[in-house]
Amino acid sequence: MNYREWYEKGKMALTEAGVEEAGLEARLLLEHVCATNRNDLLAHGDREVLPEQETRYLSLLKSRARRIPLQHLTGVQDFMGLEFDVNEHVLIPRQDTEILVEEALRELRDGMDILDMCTGSGCILISLLRYSNDCTGLGVDISEEALSVAEGNARKLLAPDCQARFIKSDLFGEVDGMYDMIVSNPPYIPSGVIGSLMPEVREHEPLGALDGREDGLWFYRRITGECRKYLKPGGMLFYEIGYDQGASVSEILSGEGFGEIQVTKDYAGLDRVVSGTLRHR
Questions:
Q1: pLDDT per residue over 104-117, tens digit each?
Q2: What is the mean pLDDT of residues 118-143?
Q3: pTM for this entry
Q4: Is 270 found in the same domain as 204?
Q5: Residues 278, 230: contact at Cβ < 8 Å?
Q6: Radius of gyration over alpha carbons of the chain, in Å?
Q7: CB 237 within 8 A of CB 279
Q8: 161 vs 247: CA distance, rounded Å
């Protein structure tokens, strides 16, 4: 079969497996295997696919049909115009999180110090450093495996002289220094909701990066309550939140001495980011 025929076969297989965007993902997997791009399907659909590529494509289709995430099969995910390496130890960067980065970039100034709590793949911190000048950054995570991914992404995507470092810490336990900005996409899904998530998420993404305890707000309370020791007066705190957590997280910030609290919506019109400024003591 030629390239177009293999695409159609892949699309049918993923459709039968209940994959939501079967056509898109069949194309992306084929491009991954054949080192092609989206134009090849239209312009070179009659090209032959090598036997070893056929074997690899069929294997990936079977894995995707078992609901292993596409990004775990290709090993990469685009975020903020950058290609991040990902695996089963980190949350897959999502477009919703780009809203957090965009809001932080509005307030980021040259030379600022940034702390990224629960850094995961490092996509938030690395994007902020990549699109700013002379800023420094610290990424914090409790998972050594996640930190290894973040460090690899930093080497891949940042200039050698960019001051980014990553440490293992249970929240602020090993953190020192003072920061102009703290950003975080903490676990925020209530424990009782985890079981209802898509199988790609509940079965293949790290539970520790998803589970926000009973009401989903545990990490917001902890981080907000402790961050005053590490945030400079007038510094800003930015959170990604769940669609129904805007009011609750805003209340947490207000109760810990933050002002100028804003809730920003995502492209679907849902609450996605809460930010605030630490009032001067």
A1: 999 999 999 999 99
A2: 97
A3: 0.94
A4: yes
A5: no
A6: 21
A7: no
A8: 40
pLDDT at residue 280, rounded to an integer: 67
What's the pLDDT score for residue 176?
95
202-225 exposure pattern, b = at least 16 Cβ within 10 A, e = fewer? bebbbeebbbbeeebbbbbbbbbe
Residue 205 dihedral angles phi and psi, to the nearest 5°: -100, 155
Judgement on whether residues 24 and 127 belong to the same structural domain of the protein: no
Answer yes or no: do 28 and 86 share one domain: no
- How big is the chain, counted in residues? 281
Instruction: Tell me what pLDDT residue 281 has.
Output: 55
Q: What is the pLDDT of residue 64?
A: 97
For the chain, the average pLDDT equals 96
Token pair of 7 as six digits: 């695409």
Q: CA distances (Å), 24 to each of 11, 38, 92, 256, in order?
A: 8, 10, 17, 45
Please, are residues 118 and 219 in contact by the beta-carbon 8 Å criterion? yes
The pair of structure tokens assigned to 40 is: 């090849």
Q: What is the domain extent for residue 39?
A: 3-66
16 shares a domain with 139 = no
Domain match, 8 and 55 both? yes
| Domain match, 16 and 100 both | no
Q: How many CA atoms lie within 13 A of 113 on its CB side?
A: 11
Identify the DSSP state of 279: P
Domain match, 25 and 161 both: no
Residues 55 and 128 grouped into a single domain: no
